[in-house]
Specification:
about 0% strand; about 500 residues; two-stranded antiparallel sheet; mainly alpha
């Protein structure tokens, strides 16, 4: 039944993709993040739904009468440079014969992210994307929260099998990222029952994250909650709720959960923690040996650890987005990756600044703040997980870049409208602030004016009729022969 339902949903939506190409973005985010076909038991588990949706979306972009192109912004530019650099490092990989599979997987993600860049242009596109991410991850979060309640927190919560977030640590981090997005959607809901359902979902996702027993997620949640409070519009109410609710949730967890989290203080005695540190040192040593290109994909094997790890026999994955990029793509790749995050953050800050002077951009400020909170949670939790190619953070970066583009477009429109109101439509274009594409020209000074200057003393007189015709003569001393008329506001 599940297989048939997913199949009908995908193929039934394809005609609409050709009518509205942006809906292909929604389908792609849904199939790539939620992986609904993985919940089936039959043919759907292995059917290439993602390839079908990707092909339909790209075809709709090509065939559409509307022109689609990747917007030239700092975020998109650095993102494309990052893609290019990953291709370069793959050519110089330590295991050149083994990187093909991972390279194809990563390029599919990055290529479709570029398509998302092209398709997200309006507020509704951003909100559809956020809704899709929230439903895709929140579905598993609600299930995990109910499981934690039923089991009393005595069993770990795991993510959906066969996805980026099937590991308990990755699943917990995904839930932490989605909670701020739920809070933004909460502000859009008018129906009280819808609001209650969203608040319950936020609570259950928090429980599911705690039920994962992930220490990295616990650190990320603490950072996310602190910044969530700082970025919220109702700090007093949010602060009271957090102080009342979070201690109850933590204290409701069983003793083995507290014992697990307490090992953060004694990480030197924990084999898993020391294995991660060993992998970080391996990545650092590899990057120092190959600073530009790193080792490429597929570097986590006994041979590479024998050359670069302090403890060669303790082979681990990178367990850090930062050391993962450093080891695989060198210092250049890490610089591009960090720059991408910093520029995305700046996009959100710019939106908040614009919204302060334009009330109708309140929605943009709200969504930018919550996108920043979500990315902060990923930046902190990702320090302990190998999720450098997880697609959701890239989608959120696209949303931030698109939000800034919309905010600046509306800001320019508001300035033009205000100028037209003050000075009239005929002069609005001349008095409006120049755009970056149209440099401002200064008028010539009197000394450089082609008009002749008059000399001597004299007087002038003139007359005109009601049709605007008139004549006059005169001369003056020391002044220009022509003076522009003055405009007065009545």
């Amino acid at each position: 039944m599940r297989d048939l339902l997913v199949t009908l949903l995908v193929f039934g939506s394809l005609p609409y993709v050709f009518k509205k190409p942006w809906f292909g973005m929604v389908l792609w985010v849904w199939i790539s993040v939620m992986n609904p076909h993985s919940q089936g038991w039959g043919f759907a588990r292995s059917f290439p739904f993602a390839a079908v949706i990707a092909a339909a979306t790209l075809a709709s972009i090509v065939l559409s009468k509307e022109r689609f192109r990747v917007p030239v912004t700092p975020v998109s530019t650095v993102f494309m440079l990052f893609i290019f650099w990953m291709c370069v490092t793959s050519l110089f990989a330590i295991h050149l014969d083994q990187v093909g599979t991972q390279w194809i997987k990563v390029m599919k993600i990055m290529g479709m992210t570029l398509a998302v860049f092209m398709l997200v242009k309006e507020r509704r596109h951003i909100e559809w994307m956020i809704w899709t991410i929230v439903v895709s991850i929140g579905y598993y979060g609600v299930k995990g929260g109910l499981f934690t309640l039923r089991s009393g927190g005595n069993y770990r919560v795991w993510g959906p099998a066969g996805t980026f977030i099937d590991d308990n640590n990755a699943f917990a981090l995904a839930l932490i990222m989605v909670i701020p997005l739920m809070y933004y959607l909460l502000s859009l809901l008018k129906n009280k029952y819808g609001r209650y359902a969203m608040m319950a979902s936020m609570l259950l996702c928090t429980l599911a994250s705690l039920g994962s027993y992930s220490r990295g997620a616990a650190v990320a949640m603490a950072a996310m909650i602190l910044f969530f409070w700082a970025k919220s519009n109702n700090r007093a109410i949010i602060g009271i709720l957090l102080v009342c609710v979070m201690p109850i949730l933590v204290l409701s967890m069983p003793s083995q959960w507290h014992e697990r989290i307490d090992t953060i203080k004694t990480y030197e005695e924990d084999g898993s923690a020391m294995g991660r540190i060993n992998a970080w040192r391996m990545a650092t040593n590899l990057a120092l040996d190959r600073p530009l290109v790193g080792g490429g994909f597929e570097i986590y094997d006994p041979g590479v650890f024998l050359m670069y790890a302090p403890v060669p026999e303790d082979v681990h994955a990178a367990h850090s987005i930062y050391f993962q990029i450093l080891g695989e793509h060198g210092f250049v790749g890490l610089l591009l990756y960090l720059t991408l995050g910093a520029l995305s953050w700046r996009e959100g800050t710019r939106v908040v600044t614009l919204a302060r002077t334009l009330p109708r951009l309140a929605w943009a400020s709200d969504v930018a703040r919550m996108l920043q909170v979500s990315l902060l949670g990923f930046a902190v939790g990702g320090a302990f997980l190998s999720l450098a190619y997880f697609d959701v953070p890239y989608y959120l970066m696209v949303a931030l870049a698109a939000t800034r583009a919309i905010a600046e477009r509306e800001s320019r429109a508001a300035i033009a409208a205000e100028t037209a109101t003050l000075f009239g439509e005929d002069n609005a274009a001349d008095l409006a602030p120049p755009s970056a594409a149209a440099p401002m020209h200064t008028p010539p000074s009197p000394s450089s004016s082609p008009l002749p200057a008059a000399s001597g003393n004299g007087n002038g007189n003139g007359n005109g009729n009601g049709n605007g015709n008139g004549n006059g003569n005169g001369n003056g001393n020391g002044g220009p022969a022509f003076a522009p008329p003055r405009k007065t506001l009545s």
